[in-house]
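Troubleshooting log. The previous structure file for this entry was overwritten by mistake, so regenerating from the original sequence record. Sequence copied from the archived sheet and checked twice against the printout by T.R.
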Amino acid sequence: MSAPKGTSSRSAAPARVAELRGLLLRANRAYYVDASPIMPDAEFDRLLAELSALEAEHPELDDADSPTHRVGGEPIKGFATKAHSRPMLSIDNTYSEDDLRAWHGRLLKSLGMGDGLFAGGDPPMLLADAKIDGVAVALRYERGRLVQALTRGDGVTGDDITENVRAIRAIPLTLAARPSGAPATPEVLEARGEIYMPLAEFERINAERDAADLEPFMNPRNATAGTLKQLDPKVVAQRRLGFVAHGRGEIDGPHAEGFAGSHSAFLRELKELGIPVSPALSHSTDIGAIVLAIQGFATTRHDCPYATDGMVVRVDDWLLQDQLGVTSKSPRWVIAYKYPAERKTTVLLRVDHQVGKTGKVTPRAVMEPVVLAGTTVQHATLHNYGQVRKKDIRLGDTIEVEKAGEIIPYVVSVVEAKRPKGAQPIQPPSACPICHGPVEIEPPEADTAQGGDPELETARRCVNPECPAQIREKLIWFAGRKQMDIDGLGERTIDAIAAGGIPLASFADVFRLGQHREALLGLERMGEKSVDNLLQGIEQARTRPLGRVLGALGIRHVGASNAKLLAKRFRSLQDLLEAEEAVLNQIEGFGPIRARTVHEYLHSQAGTQTFRELEQVGLTFPNPDYRDQNVAQCSAFTGRKIVLTGSLESFERNDLAEILEGLGAKVTGSVSKHTDLLIAGAAAGSKLTKAQELGIEIWDEAKLLEALPPEHRPQPPAA
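Regenerated output below.
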């Protein structure tokens, strides 16, 4: 008698496990890659349950890449930030067909086209595909296995969300085998694209949240971003996120030479390997045909199973892409045409005056509810009181509202023909609406350099550093994941602590909450586990590095990137506090206004007290970001553009890139005529070939070690 499904003899189990894995992998490919499902969801779930039971019964047959591991592993502690192999640049946007044609004209001019004839052949082939409104991610495969998934982040570094991505069925954990005779897959293959939430899944999740009396997600993109930030991969697995690849990252190692060569060929290769791709909706050498495709898609895009906000147009040929190059922010060979946002009219009922963490007082419109881009909105930003005056917005007005990027509602204009008699102008508050302290109007001339109206204010701020509204917003920011990363200290908890009478009026008070454990236990929704987790997160935050602390304090002009620049320049907090304004002004990216603002804060009574109290509650301000300026000035790497390729025995590539940048170099991901030096390890591929063709200086690992200062060389193991 054969063993029933779900149980198996030891001899039959391996074959059945292999069969089930093959069926499930084919089903995933059919659903996500080929858009041609071969089995209903219920059948997929039944087979998955059978496989899970077999693997539990025969643990020796378990495999990290099994489809059963898609259900998510243990919760993770957080997301590490890692460097991209090559910058993950954003794409320039346009909302105008004329601008699109102008981009095409610049492109042709750069390629040497004249009098309607392309130098050496036909005009370049253009591809246009749907711009999916999702979360950008880079998937890195090494030897055919998914090893890393990074968000875009700031384009240079991103969050490592690999564990969560492994729970997404649309993304293969291992690449499919190539057919006989096809080119081999490169050792390193990076596909970049969008993770998105299908509209049907978005509706299902919001229905469940509504039933559970939870706030619904505002749109699919926010729902996707929120899902990927989950610390529990099981939650990610429960939401059927999709993925489409639309770009390339690093391609290196053996077999990289000659792989693809164009965007269309690259997508074909990815699809063969089992990665879902964004198919071209139009391809033509004629920009007029591309414009017609964009116009046509405007009426059909709402039938797509995912949210779209435009079309992406790019040059197909990779050699031409390389020839066109990139700006500091975006490639020149690609552009995104975005459809104008939906606009509706409604009535302005009142204006709320909100106070942010820097004291900025911002007007917010409260309107009669209106459905906009698929969601009901009742609030919209008015930006600042200068804009309110410029647009002459009055209470009771009929206003036109749209969503910026189909996310943030804002007031575009007033329908003056519908203005009620006696409509009252909106009066900016002469005092802080929360603490009733004095406000300062941002100097109008501060915006004139950007073409602003010198008669219109750009902002007004509450100047009371003890304003409760400012303190609340600063604490929320301070505790955030990218700042001090204090798990459990979110907006609701901060409000509950304040309402419970527990002292929380400064950053230092956060680190005194351990003295109030019993009072915390008495708060609503604060059980013993929640309180212990909160206090543990606070203890861990005491050793956050200097750069993270500076970026968490809400200092004007000091976000995460500028905070890191300060940490790189000054060895310790004390060195920073002793620095003259002129020294701050010399830091790349600062300038006189930013230097003056930061210097004034550091030497203000509020700033001095903040740092003194943080030291008193045990913050140590370690500074691993510091880079000795004297070392960089005498470094053999100063000012050189360096590319790394191949495998190095002594360093992880990201660690070496950080060392070289600390020594004054700029590490980039691709070889070009502007590259000064290529450092090549074992199994170097196409980058080495290209560097040789361009006559670029090439070092092996031995020469690298010889040039590095002793403190950056790997230490030999202890005897």
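Residues 13-32 form the longest helix (20 residues). Archived copy saved in two places this time.
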